Amino acid sequence: MSEFKNFIEDIIDNDIKSGKVTEVCTRFPPEPNGYLHIGHAKSLCINFGIKTKYNGKCNLRFDDTNPSKEDTEYVESIKNDIEWLGFKWDKLLFASDYFDVMFDCAVKLINKGLAYVSDETAEEIRERRGTLTEAGTESPYRNRSAEENLQLFYGMRDGKYADGSKVLRAKIDMSSSNINMRDPVIYRVLRAHHHNTGDKWCIYPMYDFAHPIEDAYEGITHSICTLEFEDHRPLYDWVVKSCDFPEPRPQQIEFARLNVTNTIMSKRYLKKLVDEGKVMGWDDPRMPTLSGLRRRGYPAAALRDFCERIGVSKANSEVEEGYLQACVRDELNKTADRVMAVFDPLKVVLTNFEGTEDLTVENNPNAEPLTYRTVPLSKEIYIDRADFALVPPPKYYRLKPGGVVRLKGAYIIRCDEVIQDTDGNVTELHCFVLPNSKSGSDTSGVKVKGVIQWADASTCIDITVRKLQSLLTDVVDGVTDFNQRFNEDSLKVVCAKAERSLLTAKVEDKFQFMRVGYYVLDKDSTKNNLVFNEIVSLKDNFNKPN
Ligand code: ATP
Ligand code: MG
Asked: Is 31 part of the annotated catalytic residue set?
């Protein structure tokens, strides 16, 4: 964790110093209308990071006050993703559990003359709201008595009025320079089944009314949200104060949301991709959802590291996708075992090698303690076609006619003969194994500059590999609409020959395929067909085509 404080922590420090706050309490309030994405990871890291730094609390509260789009599938996925990211919430809460509290708050406002029932249509309310330069016009229902308002509001609750026919509005100031303060609607009539409260309610509170009540009721001290709520803060403060919540009242603090290049952060569009079958599901390894990134092989630690490195600010910006990939690469370099796989196999016969030798190969040079595995070597192997050149360019250190190269973890070989078909394509190489050149006990005295990966022909396995690219193509000619940017080439399936040791891998195990990239075992694997997803390439090449 960084020793530098961000502006939110500065505010919290001051609140502690002044004695306003004794125990810091934050919350993460997702709406259960989709899966969490990389943007939510930032909010999670901020809120749970504060809990850790200040030895405070962080609640997980499902903001489920909007009945229509919510689903328990999403509730479960969100809990799962947060745990995977490595965070533990204190209380698990549902905003809908506070519907009675919110109703009582609305009654309180009515009694205080701070809310009224209006019969205006949505359109009339919009027309009378005014503009940034013009004050709004007062509602004709604004001066109903508290008694009348109470009776009407109970009627709304009891189902006496049709959907949309009446609303409860806060009575604040129609000429406020902040449009959010011009008598905002705080309750509406809506007959919709709610995933938690069923059909108990036919009126539902609006977000701007519900959220501050949830925060205040739970004793949240710092309610951290994204910048678009900045203009709503006066209303937030008005609600907690007018509903008579005691001091210290929760304080809303806004930060800039995370945007990543070529990455979709709109739940609506992500849902559309799922519903239209353009992806394998919310956890498709190309999806920017946490479950997608997890399936893609992005370690939770890398996502936390990314959020820490990009920091928290008040200015909107876009982070390069490659920066996230760099964090993933750093983490996997430390943690992923190395194995060998050959994507474009070229057969090599080791002319002077008989039988099978079990080589002992190190799994990960960065691991402590070092561990080893056995890789068999026998007479026929595969190397990658790209590691041989019939007519090599200058300074070519891989295999060429008459040249030498080291087989990773094994011997130095010399290419003595190149077999070609009638079209001149290279079909096979015959190589000589240099005596005494075994890796780790090499006394051959031969210097080689190239080390290449290989697969033992008699024991290797065929694996399926998904090569993945962004779901969005780059913006061309100013076309930013996601619908027109779907990358039809974002998934390519290829085969490779890989070492047998992978047969013991478990789903989500991550590997470095040496000299190629990082790969993760996918849940679609079967005993006879291991499926790997490409996580990231080895080198930083995010600007180059694959
Ligand atoms: P939608 O408006 O599609 O429902 P949302 O992004 O507002 O999506 P919520 O479930 O309401 O989703 O978000 C939960 C929390 O995550 C909120 O506090 C929100 O501010 C935060 N959050 C959402 N997207 C981002 C983002 N891109 N960067 C940082 N925080 C985000
Ligand atoms: Mg939202």
From this structure: yes
- Enumerate the β-bridge partners of residue 358: 376
Q: Which residues contact 169 (CB under 8 A, 6 or more apart)?
A: 115, 116, 117, 118, 125, 139, 183, 184, 185, 186
Q: Which mean pLDDT values do the consecutive 10-residue runs of the chain (546 residues) have?
A: 81 97 97 96 98 98 85 93 98 96 98 98 96 96 98 98 98 98 98 91 97 98 97 98 96 97 91 95 98 98 97 91 96 98 98 97 94 97 97 96 98 98 97 97 95 98 96 84 88 98 98 98 97 92 42
Q: In what order do the strands lie in the sheet with 345-350?
A: 451-452, 404-407, 412-420, 426-433, 345-350, 380-384, 454-456
| H helices present in 311-389, as ranges | 321-335
The answer to whether the beta carbons of residues 204 and 192 sit under 8 Å apart is yes
The alpha carbon of 63 and the centre of ligand 2 are apart by a number of angstroms equal to 8
Sign of CA dihedral 430, 433, 434, 439: positive
3-state secondary structure 502-539: HHHCCCCCEEEECCCEEEEECCCCECCECEEEEEEECC
Decide whether any atom of ligand 1 lies within 6 Å of the 258 Cβ: yes
Rounded to a whole number of angstroms, the distance between the first and last alpha carbons of the chain is 35
Please say whether the dihedral angle defined by the alpha carbons of residues 233, 239, 245 and 246, taken in this order, is positive or negative.
positive
Q: Are 29 and 214 in contact (CB under 8 A)?
A: yes
What are the start-end ranges of the H helices in 135-283? 146-157, 207-218, 233-242, 267-275
| DSSP H/E element including 427 | strand 426-433
Cβ–ligand 1 contact at 30 (below 6 Å): yes
Q: Give residue 33 CA to ligand 2 midpoint distance, Å.
A: 9
| Whole-number pLDDT of residue 477 | 81
Residue-level pLDDT at 540: 65
Given this model, what pLDDT does residue 234 score? 98
Exposed, middle or buried: residue 43 (CB in 10 Å: 0-12, 13-18, 19+)?
buried
Is residue 267 part of the annotated active site? The answer reads yes
Q: Which residue has the tokens 């907690």?
A: 240
> Which pLDDT belongs to residue 542?
41
**147: annotated active-site residue:** no
Ligand nearest to C-alpha 39? 1
Tokens 């209380």, located at residue: 91
Catalytic residue among 257, 278, 398, 408: 257
